[in-house]
Amino acid sequence: MKSRTLPGRFLAIATIASLALAVPGPAQAQAADGHWAAPGDPVAADLLEMERVWATLACVPADARYAANKAFVEKFIADDFVGTSPAGPLYTKADMLPKPGTTAPVERDCKVLGAKVRFFTPDLAVIYGSESAIVQDAKGNAAPRELIWTDTVLRRAGQWQIIAVQDMTAPKK
What we know:
By secondary structure, the chain is an alpha+beta fold.
């Protein structure tokens, strides 16, 4: 008789213990809520600099743009990256690697308008920001472009990389 009830009790205790571990406690809830980067946070400063570099790549002179884009993508874009472009389609790291001999639209006055970092764990953060540039179309007409974005970054093996982005064109003012 004991042999039947012992496994049953063990199963009940194991179930209760696993449920207790699965329900987030105060420490787990606090970590999930995250926190905004404090002023002067060196990690946040590095992440914001990474965003500044990315936002200004389109303004790099044409003769240096291919190498600059390639170096940035290889270092800061994760292999499993997926982004959503302002037009809607998804794109990957492979899509971002510049193709030799291709030319991108001419841009000038590239800048980050503002950005904030929110840490969810010591190795996971979301950066909320916006950027602007003057973009020249194929006909040579220049027009301002402003993007609003949300970038998710993850630190793997000590290196921060962008794993996902969502970009949208800012509404006309």
